[in-house]
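Homework help board

Subject: predicted structure for assignment chain

Our instructor gave us this sequence and asked us to write out the predicted structure in token form, then describe one feature. I got the tokens but I'm not sure how to describe them. Can anyone check?
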Amino acid sequence: MKHWSPAVKAFLGIFIFYEVVGWLFVSAYPRLEQLQLINGNNSPLADLVFQALTSTAEVILPIVLLLYLIQFKKVYALPYVYSYALSTALIQGLKRVIFTDTLRPLAYFASSGVKWHIIPGLLISEFNSMPSGHTGAAFFMFFWVAVLLRRWFWGFFAGFLAVGVAYSRVYLFQHFPVDTLVGAAIGLGSSALFYSIHYAKSSSK
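My token output:
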């Protein structure tokens, strides 16, 4: 980790904090209470903010960042692509091979009788809950943002955005917290792996 910039270390610190707090949270509360605490505390402003945050992890922004790397930081383009491919393959493989029967909150709580906060017009999925693809994409992508920006406060900000995406997935009633914790670990782990491989190869030349 000596070669990691202050931004990457700050990002890693945010990730570790999120994982520790997150696992304590899911251990302390049953699933119903987890969703009531997060989805139940809502507002029109929060609806807008969390929809915007969740959209950062969709296809367009990762592609925009890739185009930037190709144009201005070619040395990171291939590690970025490899980490995206690994993260996506692991998450989709887990969704469709290992955790094929895991229900998302809408289906899981269908008979609970609880009135959940569902944003009008928002498409809510019902299946393939584990792990969260959006969260994996966010931690994968914002890791590379931290690599590019280098200063610790940008790494902190990138980590804050990644955690915001994870929280948004639960707030929007798309995932359980545990889905985002696993997705975050896969996303960050994939990026950290290929960043470290890239640095090792560069140092050996």
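Reply (TA_rk): Your tokens look well-formed. For the description, you could write something like this. Residues 66 and 80 are 7 Å apart (CA to CA). That's the kind of observation they're looking for.
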